[in-house]
Design brief:
The complex is a heterodimer of chains A (about 675) and B (about 475).
Chain A lengths: L1 H18 L8 H25 L4 H19 L10 E9 L2 E11 L2 E10 L6 E7 L11 H9 L3 E5 L11 E2 L4 E2 L4 H12 L7 H17 L3 E11 L1 H12 L3 E7 L5 H5 L24 H7 L4 E6 L6 H17 L6 E6 L10 H12 L37 H8 L10 H12 L13 E2 L3 E3 L2 E11 L2 E8 L7 E7 L4 H9 L3 E5 L19 H9 L4 H16 L5 E9 L3 H10 L3 E7 L6 H5 L20 H8 L3 E4 L11 H7 L5 E3 L13
Parallel strand pairs in A: 4-5, 4-8, 8-9, 9-10, 10-11, 16-17, 16-18, 18-19, 19-20, 20-21
Antiparallel strand pairs in A: 1-2, 2-3, 3-5, 6-7, 12-14, 13-14, 14-15, 15-17
Helix pairs in contact in A: 1-2, 2-15, 3-9, 6-7, 7-9, 9-10, 16-17, 17-19
Chain B lengths: L6 H7 L1 H10 L13 H10 L10 E2 L9 E5 L1 H13 L4 E5 L3 E4 L2 E2 L4 E5 L4 E4 L10 E5 L2 E5 L4 E4 L2 E6 L3 E3 L8 H5 L8 H10 L20 E4 L2 E6 L2 E3 L12 E6 L2 E4 L13 E6 L2 E4 L4 E3 L4 H7 L3 E7 L2 E2 L2 E7 L7 E11 L4 E8 L7 E14 L3 E6 L13 E14 L2 E6 L6 E11 L7 E3 L1 E11 L2 E3 L16
Parallel strand pairs in B: 1-3, 2-4, 3-6, 4-7, 5-10, 6-11, 7-12, 10-13, 11-14, 12-15, 14-16, 15-17, 16-18, 17-19, 18-21, 19-22, 20-23, 21-24, 22-24, 23-25, 24-26, 25-27, 26-28, 27-29, 28-30, 29-31, 30-32
Antiparallel strand pairs in B: 8-9, 32-33
Classes of the chains: A alpha/beta (about 675), B mainly beta (about 475).
Chain lengths: ~675, ~475
């Protein structure tokens, strides 16, 4: 019920906007967040009804089958298998345990660094646990004490570095001795952006790393292969949950400070979407939510571990546990799921460590003991490293980077069909464009005219959805009869509006959906759409698609205006690819000007690093088309002004020519030069 | 994308050796490098191209009066939509969406893609009467005029079943599966009768099994079709085999999830087919996950069509008798089968790679290659070649098995590594295990009448071994492996 109230209040807000001057309006970003959140709540509620309707073990089993099929579709799992190529590079001993440093290959040529902890006593075979760290720069080192405690309790523990952490920093810069991207969440956001256009989700490699870790454990004769558990906290809890759901060899699972549900995460005041590998495009749209990860592992033993002061709300963790516990009970396994709650903030596991170790003792060692947690200092981390200098990227034989693996597996499509119908279909499928050229014009609300520096503009607003207002400014050309008309897609349109209006054009400037405001950027390189794009993708929308919808809706309005003659679209920066999409989709567009736009999604995959991918990126686009295909389809209708690389730097003529064999019209000019209609 | 993972493999494929081969095969452009059988797989893969359908020609059962309410029978509406799509220029799509559709058998026509939307289910009626009059079909390697498969096609070109939706066979212990266990009324079960008629050479037109039959319908059976695509669907509760292409060419089965635990619930059984790709599928089945076949006994020899050029890639096998099985209905022979990048794991999975044959079936199995496979645990042998399946040596025909390579296989736990049982007069020939790690094998191997068994970099229970571990006592395997 709550989201209906929310929607209603938003609808009121939308009406108010029309009569308010632009400065007092709620930011477009806030409006978009509210809209996407309402959509998320609706999708989560639909899913909840589906899960609540399950009452028999067979229904539960069929739900697992469906969830597994959807996860495979959304993630696109890696497939490399067989004996694990690995090397132990060092050994050391602690009090009651021994440690090996090692690397193993996850996919051919791509390495995971890890530590293997062994119990100091006994002959085995020992039950084993694969352990994964949260988002810490030091990766597996952060798990040293916990892994050592588990080893002392009688487990073999494979404690791995998650990619982007520990010895697996992908963008490690030897000159600064750290990642040039930033913290692990930033590294993951970059990897997400690199992987997104190839289809599926970046978590496929995280999962593969873990599954190959289980292959490695299973390969050790001293491991009891039928008693392998999985444990991780925070980001490590995420991949632990993924692993348990997808690898039936995981016999017992504890995920700490991760389990929640999207109602609580995305709610106003909540933490919002989690990190890139934790947010799977279309997850909510397909009727999935985080508890599905637990339910997919039923009836195998599971512990939901949470702390009451976590930024991931404890109420969400409890709700997820409650739902999963019901699911386990339906499968006749009520005793196999438990919730371990502890005090304190995110990752504060020490007070509840005996319960966690006790959980694994119970299910993997048939032992009720809950041994006290012993403080074990790490000491000089060098003895735990698998590479000479602590990084795979600087090691002489460190193997490929994740980005290289992504590039190797990126789809290489046949030349996109010149047939415009199938290219348009591909755009609608990939960018999730819903508004069609020729749909009824949106009801446009007009505000009072505003005069600024001699330009009279009319504030407009239409409802892109019942709870989402899109604002615009319209400057109508003076004089009678039909005039050429420009639809401007850019953040600060005033200068363009003034110039083109002076040249006799009608100009409609559309406020880019989600513009303004800011959210946490995971890295200075990923831009302030990092989290907003995740929120959109979760519910089945893309930034480019939403903005294309708005533009086509605006064109549907313009097309009915008596003063509108030929129509052109101009998009700048992140809106340049939107303008290209609009031009291909809508025959009413006579010309497209793309200013400071990227030319190729494939560059996200092939360049070592790209900037601000989130605002323009499209899931799976490379299997269907790329921007050069749109430019080719537009032919003489398109002009490119100062195209840029995926880092945002200007491209030279020969670089553009190499990317665009079709040789469209390209204008190179100073950034200070105005963009005028005569440029066409 | 793939690196050679071990020096051994590099030695085998690389360097001067390859140069010599190039010289030897100069002028025979089509011949793949014999040192790397997987070059042939790459050629096959390139050849397999799924059909495409114009999205503009889209039809729905609703247009023909169908209602997706789960209770109104939509057989006719779906048939009319299929006819309309087939008649459209270049073919078309039938989009099954909007809810739960109850239907009888569906016949696909040339040029038609049956697309089951993600949120929709195609539910097949439990009323056997709907699946008659009898049509040409095949049951466990024998042709008959019998119960229509749920989705079938005969001599069609360019057909597909796609979408993220569910195909629900509604089989359970009271419907369809009970027929497998029903005792025969007159001393001869329908299955036995069919096998007898086939052996007696009774023309197929006279092998009629009417509505009182206990023979169960196959789920999806394209018969003598070209250019077949089955993609994305989830198949549950199947009466019999799930995907059974017969005498088809250019078949792609990808991203299909199959979960069905009834009797004879094989996942995907290409029979007498050429150029088949099974990719990124998940199998959780009551019988073999994948079983490659080519007709049973006299029927197999009469039709005389081998299955050839099959690629199985990126599949996950959970429960089932065999992960990838060849046989037992292989009287027409099977050759050129490539299995890679698969995961197989379940205590309910009996063997990973299995070949079943006997002296009644005959048939030739040759040129089979497996690489990059992780087997968590299997209940019995990891690799089984068994001539003693069912009738065993009691028959006049000579099974031939020649050429199996298994490279880079990791097995966590199995009863034994090998169970190879040939005949004295028909030995199993040329089996290579290379870079294979078996971590926990409980029993010694069974190796009887095998010629040319080679080990290269094989480890068993932590010890490097140069050949099989003798001592296993041969015994006849049951149907389940």
């Amino acid at each position: 019920m709550r989201h209906h109230a929310l929607a209603a209040s938003l609808a009121c807000a939308a009406t108010l906007l029309l009569v308010q001057p632009a400065t007092a309006q709620e930011m477009a970003r806030d409006r978009l967040i509210a809209h996407l959140t309402a959509q998320a709540r609706e999708q989560a509620a639909e899913r909840r009804a589906v899960v609540q309707a399950i009452t028999t073990p067979e229904q539960a089993r069929l739900r697992q089958v469906r969830v597994r099929a959807m996860l495979a579709e959304l993630i696109g799992p890696e497939r490399a298998a067989g004996p694990v190529r690995a090397e132990v590079t060092g050994r050391s001993d602690g009090d009651g345990f021994g440690v090996e440093s090692l690397w193993y290959e996850s996919v051919p040529g791509y390495r995971v660094t890890a530590n293997l902890y062994r119990p100091g006593r006994g002959n085995g075979p020992f039950p084993a646990i694969i352990m994964q760290p949260g988002h810490g720069v030091d990766g597996k080192l952060g798990n040293h004490a916990f892994a050592a405690n588990l080893a002392r309790a009688g487990f073999i523990v494979l404690s791995i570095d998650i990619v982007g952490e520990g010895e697996r920093i992908q963008h490690y810069d030897p000159e600064i001795g750290a990642s040039k991207v930033g913290r692990p969440t930033g590294e993951h956001s970059v990897a997400f952006g690199q992987a997104l256009p190839t289809g599926g989700h970046v978590s496929r490699w995280f999962i593969q790393d873990a599954m190959r870790g289980v292959d490695y454990l299973m390969s050790l004769p001293e491991v009891d292969d039928r008693r392998i558990g999985a444990f991780g906290c925070s980001g490590g809890g995420t991949i632990t949950a993924y692993l348990a759901a997808l690898d039936p060899r995981i016999a017992a699972t504890a995920t700490a400070c991760y389990v929640n549900d999207y109602d609580h995460l995305l709610a106003p005041g909540g933490p919002g979407p989690q990190d890139a590998e934790q947010s799977i495009p279309f997850f909510l749209e397909r009727g999935l939510d985080l508890p599905d990860w637990i339910e997919a592992a039923a009836p195998r033993p599971y512990a939901v571990v949470s702390t009451t002061g976590d930024m991931f709300p404890i109420a969400g963790a409890r709700a997820a546990h409650a739902e999963a516990a019901r699911f386990y009970a339906i499968m006749g396994a009520a005793d196999r799921i438990t919730m371990i709650e502890g005090p304190g903030g995110h990752g504060n596991l020490q007070p509840i460590a005996p319960h966690i170790i006790g959980f694994f003792n119970r299910w993997l060692r048939d032992d009720p003991a809950q041994p006290a947690f012993v403080t074990i200092p790490t000491g000089d981390p060098a003895h735990l490293l698998a590479t000479p200098a602590g990084q795979l990227t600087t090691a002489p034989d460190g193997g490929d980077t994740l980005r290289q693996v992504i590039a190797r597996e990126a789809p290489v499509p046949a030349v996109a069909s010149a047939d415009s119908a199938s290219l348009r279909q591909a755009i609608r499928d990939v960018a999730r464009v819903h508004v069609l050229p020729g749909d009824p014009a949106p009801a446009m609300q007009e505000g009072a005219p505003v005069d600024t520096d001699g330009l009279r503009t009319l504030p407009l607003s239409f409802a892109a959805a019942p709870d989402l207002a899109v604002n615009a400014l319209y400057a109508r050309a003076s004089g009678r009869g039909r005039r050429p008309t420009l639809l401007v897609l850019q953040a600060r349109p005033q200068a363009i509006m003034a110039r083109w209006h002076a040249a006799g054009w009608n100009v409609l400037a559309l406020e880019p959906r989600g513009a303004g405001g800011t959210e946490e950027a995971k890295s200075p390189l990923t831009g302030d759409w990092t989290l907003l794009s995740l929120r959109a993708l979760l519910v089945g929308q893309t930034p480019v698609g939403m903005r294309t919808d708005d533009a086509v809706a605006a064109l549907n309005w313009l097309a009915g205006r008596p003063e509108v003659g030929r129509i052109e679209v101009l998009g700048t920066g992140a809106l340049a690819p939107v303008a290209l999409h609009v031009g291909v989709l809508d025959d009413r567009v006579d010309g497209v000007t793309a200013v400071n736009g990227i030319l190729r999604y494939r560059d996200f995959v092939e360049r070592p690093l790209s900037r601000d991918m989130a605002e323009v990126n499209l899931p799976g686009v490379l299997a269907r088309y790329d921007l050069p295909d749109l430019i080719t389809a537009l032919g003489k209708r398109v002009v490119l002004v100062n195209p840029v690389s995926s880092v945002g730097e200007p491209l030279r003529a020969e670089q553009v020519a190499a990317i665009l064999p079709a040789a469209p019209r390209v204008i190179f000019q100073s950034p200070r030069d105005p963009i005028l209609p005569s440029a066409r | 994308m793939r690196h050679s993972a071990s020096p051994t493999r590099r030695q085998l494929l690389g360097g001067g050796c390859a140069a010599m081969i190039v010289t030897a095969t100069a002028g025979r452009a089509q011949t793949p490098d014999p040192a790397d059988p997987w070059a042939e797989a790459a050629q096959i893969r390139q050849r397999i191209v799924p059909p495409r359908f114009p999205h503009a020609n889209s039809f729905t059962p609703q247009q023909f009066g169908g209602v997706p309410d789960g209770s109104t029978l939509a057989t006719d509406a779906i048939a009319q939509a299929i006819a309309a799509a087939s008649a459209a220029p270049g073919g078309g799509r039938v989009v099954v969406g909007g809810g739960i559709w109850l239907t009888g058998p569906i016949r696909l026509l040339s040029g038609v893609e049956l697309h089951v939307d993600r949120d929709s289910t195609l539910r097949f009626s439990q009323d056997p009467a709907l699946y008659f009059p009898p049509i040409l079909t095949r049951m466990e390697g024998n042709e008959l005029m019998g119960i229509a498969p749920f989705i079938h096609a005969l001599e069609a070109e360019n057909i597909a079943i796609t979408g993220g939706g569910v195909l629900d066979g509604q089989a359970d212990e009271q419907h369809w599966w009970d027929r497998a266990r029903r005792p025969a009324d007159n001393g001869e079960s329908d299955g036995r009768r069919l096998r007898r008629l086939a052996e007696e050479g009774v023309p197929v037109a006279e092998r009629v099994f009417g509505p009182d039959t206990t023979i169960r319908p196959q789920f999806i059976q394209p018969y003598r079709c070209r250019n077949v695509l089955i993609e994305g669907v989830t198949i549950i509760r199947s009466p019999m085999w799930e995907i059974h292409p017969v005498e088809c060419e250019n078949v792609t089965v990808r991203r299909v999830t199959i979960s069905s635990h009834g009797p004879n619930n094989d996942g995907c059984d290409p029979e007498s087919c050429r150029d088949v790709l099974i990719e990124d599928c998940l199998f959780d089945t009551g019988d073999d996950c994948i079983a490659i076949k080519s007709g049973r006994n006299a029927d197999g020899r009469r039709l005389n069509r081998p299955t050839e050029n099959v690629i199985v890639s990126g599949c996950t096998m959970l429960d089932g008798h065999g992960g990838v099985t060849l046989g037992s209905e292989i009287s027409g022979g099977v050759r050129n089968v490539f299995v890679e990048n698969c995961r197989m794991d379940s205590p309910q999975l009996n063997t990973a790679i299995r070949f079943k044959n006997n002296a009644v079936r005959g048939g030739t199995l040759e040129n089979i290659h497996v690489r990059d496979v992780t087997v968590g645990q299997v209940g019995r042998a990891a690799i089984t070649v068994d001539y003693n399946y069912e009738e065993g040596a009691d028959g006049p025909y000579t099974p031939v098995f020649d050429g199996l390579t298994v490279q880079r296989m990791l097995v966590g736990r199995c009863e034994r590594v090998l169970d190879l049982q040939g005949f004295a007069h028909a030995p199993i020939r040329n089996v290579l295990l290379q870079d294979v790690t078996v971590v926990r094998a409980a029993e010694p191997d069974i190796v009887e009448h095998v010629e040319g068994l080679h080990y290269a970099n094989v480890s068993r229970n932590g010890v490097a071994v140069r050949g099989p571990t003798p001592g296993g006592m041969p015994r006849r395997a049951g149907r389940s492996g």
